[in-house]
């Protein structure tokens, strides 16, 4: 923590994005890595901040979090406490709790981030070739929520909070449009002048990913209420506009 304090000393803002990839097979080892890379890292950063003299502490602390905190299949804004009771929910709850004891004079902002779509995002790159070849496929039943955000809006939201917003708050970083995995798959195929009529069975996803397959077959419907109320405007509020820019 002492070395970390020296790195943080006299900085204006600390942005904490640490966390091992969660979309992988959950063994005991990977579960520990997923948890500690988020929770322990955040605790260490907060400890390092608190060890600094008051006049050398950052004014803002922004921490990544995830929409995985919310119960799948339900609709949520930032006021929801209907949280996921599984592994992901417990990780995200502890992740957010790890920064709750920051000094009161430091602005604390938590970003619950959805599925980020951009030209170089894995979620996009991995789909382009199969879709062009006519193999666009929804995952499982396809009616699970697909809370997305364009990477440009994500960056703009960070910039907005850094430069224009001065209160401690939690924000859902997702586009306003509510869509399902089926609707995403159809929009993706349409953007490449293809059709989507295939599906990847849930049992296959479970064979490949084990317990983590629920990341692809379940999801919460999420509303960016606090971003709207703070005056933030999305450049890409719909999946059609998002994919038109990316593809």
Short description:
The chain has helices at residues 2-8, 28-50, 87-97, 122-132, 151-164, 181-191, 202-209, 214-217, 225-230, 239-246; strands spanning 13-16, 60-66, 75-76, 107-113, 115-117, 137-139, 148-150, 169-173, 198-200, 221-222. By secondary structure, the chain is α/β, with parallel strands linked by helices.
- Number of DSSP helical runs: 10
Assess the beta-strand content as a share of residues: 15-25%
From the alpha carbons, calculate the radius of gyration and give it in angstroms.
19 Å
| Spatial ordering of strands, largest sheet | 1-2-4-8
Largest sheet: 4 strands, parallel
Classification by helices and strands:
alpha/beta
Helix content: 40-55%
Helix-strand pattern, N to C?
Answer: HEHEEHEEHEEHEHEHHEHH
Number of strand segments: 10
Are there runs of 5+ residues with pLDDT below 50, and where?
none
Quick check: average pLDDT?
95
Task: State the end-to-end CA separation.
Answer: 44 Å
- General form: globular
Oligomeric state of the chains present here: single chain
């Amino acid at each position: 923590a002492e070395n970390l304090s020296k790195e943080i000393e006299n900085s204006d803002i600390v942005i904490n994005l640490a966390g091992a990839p969660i979309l992988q097979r959950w063994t005991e080892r990977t579960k520990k890595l997923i948890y500690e890379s988020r929770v322990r890292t955040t605790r260490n950063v907060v400890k390092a901040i608190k060890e600094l003299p008051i006049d050398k502490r950052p004014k803002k602390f922004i921490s990544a979090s995830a929409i995985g905190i919310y119960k799948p299949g339900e609709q949520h804004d930032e006021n929801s406490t209907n949280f996921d009771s599984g592994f992901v929910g417990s990780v995200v709850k502890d992740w957010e709790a790890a920064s709750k004891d920051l000094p009161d004079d430091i602005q604390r902002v938590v970003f619950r981030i959805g599925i980020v779509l951009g030209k170089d995002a894995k979620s996009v790159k991995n789909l382009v070739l199969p879709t062009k070849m006519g193999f666009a496929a929804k995952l499982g039943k396809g009616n699970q929520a697909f809370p997305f955000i364009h990477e440009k809006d994500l960056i703009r939201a960070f910039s907005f909070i850094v430069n224009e917003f001065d209160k401690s708050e939690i924000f859902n970083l997702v586009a306003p449009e509510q869509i399902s995995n089926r609707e995403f798959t159809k929009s993706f195929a349409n953007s490449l002048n293809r059709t989507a009529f295939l599906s990847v069975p849930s049992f296959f996803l479970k064979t490949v990913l084990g317990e983590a397959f629920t990341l692809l077959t379940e999801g919460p419907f999420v509303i960016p209420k606090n971003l709207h109320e703070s005056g933030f405007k999305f450049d890409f509020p719909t999946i059609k506009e998002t994919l038109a820019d990316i593809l």
